[in-house]
Amino acid sequence: MKSSSKSNNIQKYDLIVIGSGAGLEVAHAAAQSGLKVAIVEKSKMGGTCLNRGCIPSKLLIHSADIVETIKTAHLFGIHVEKYSIDFQKIVQRVNNLVDSDSSDIRNSFDNSENPKLFTSECKFVAEKTLLIGNEKICSNKILIAAGTRPFIPQIKGLETTNYLISDQALRLDKQPKILTIIGGGFIAAELGHYFGSLGTVVNIIQKRKSLIPNEDEEISKKFTEIFSTKYNVYLECTAELVIKKGNKFVVLAKSSDSNKTLEIESDQLLIATGRVPNSDTLDLPRTGVDVDENGFIKVDKTLATSVEGIFALGDIIGRYQFRHSANLEAQYAFYNIFNQKKKIQVDYSAMPHAIFSSPQVAGVGYTEQDLKKTNKKGYDKSIYRYIDTAMGKAIEEREGFVKFLVSKENRKILGCHIIGSQASILIHEVLVAMKSGDGIIDNISKTVHIHPALSEVISRGAVRI
Question: What order do you get walking across the sheet with 379-385 strand by strand?
Fold first, then answer.
């Protein structure tokens, strides 16, 4: 009787979803199919993208983009004599929009028993069994979509200072006069643009030889050149010590070139050195789910983990850490969870990304450095500058360009990389060409493009191959 009573205390579900980002779509679809579903979310509803990532950052960055337009208005014969920044209003506008959306999602669960929302932290205590507060729940089918969090490097003195991570930087209500960013990836690029365009002096300390080093090498080089004219960029520098002097942060960083130690002072310090998976908070060994050496959950091509019936998607699996990728995975996860004998592999082909900085960057497919290492049959390359199109001249886009990488063997588009105005929009023509039909470059070059639209930079780049 004791054993039976203990078993009865565990609530059983047809599906448990951990995380309310892209996993929320799977939960709702399952509930609408008549299954009993539980959702576990310890933080705000909507996941990282809505609350701490792509949505608030792009809303804030739009204000920065407007300021850049004002600053360059003189190039077009327009002189703006005076403008001011209401930093608190900028941030409050974004917070209100994001918090309202998140609250709306949360409120939709107030009278819902299916899906059932659990709002405490959870961890596995047995196979396919979770402890949430004082409650235990279990299911034969579980989807882990618990995301990632900022990685904090081991820098002497850092742990005793009130540094910022990206979550806090997006909600900072007082504009820093001087901001130091440790890290040189896409978060540093976007937040550097946001604060810098609004008037903050920005220092960027980057270990690598260039900023956004995971991009195509020519894109990364050009981006670094442009950013270095706007901000104080310290390349091949390693932060070794952080000291707080009153209200000031002092970072001591060693340059690998000269072996000199730089002393960089600011009134705010932002750590933007990547992200780590939240897998370590779930006590996964209790349910047998394997992770790799970096803590990302190991999944096969169908998103199945090492335990039958447990699947994972999104940032926590470490494949493509984009919300649009997680949304794609959610579609496959829903099908595979309930069709385990005929699972299908996720099609990641033509998976794009963009960096909403200034300049914008967008890319899809292989970089040239990838192809140099792996492509034995060869590739052709084409670069076309914005300024060599009519619209490029109209908008004074002198630095931007489009780069195509195309197979010599069959003319398939292997990669496309863009730096410049509206890169995040322009890339979509290439995505359709890669995803549809035979995926060859001729599908772009033979298409009539409107003259003088900015998209001519894509067509002319394609024609050159």
Answer: 352-355, 361-365, 413-419, 401-407, 379-385
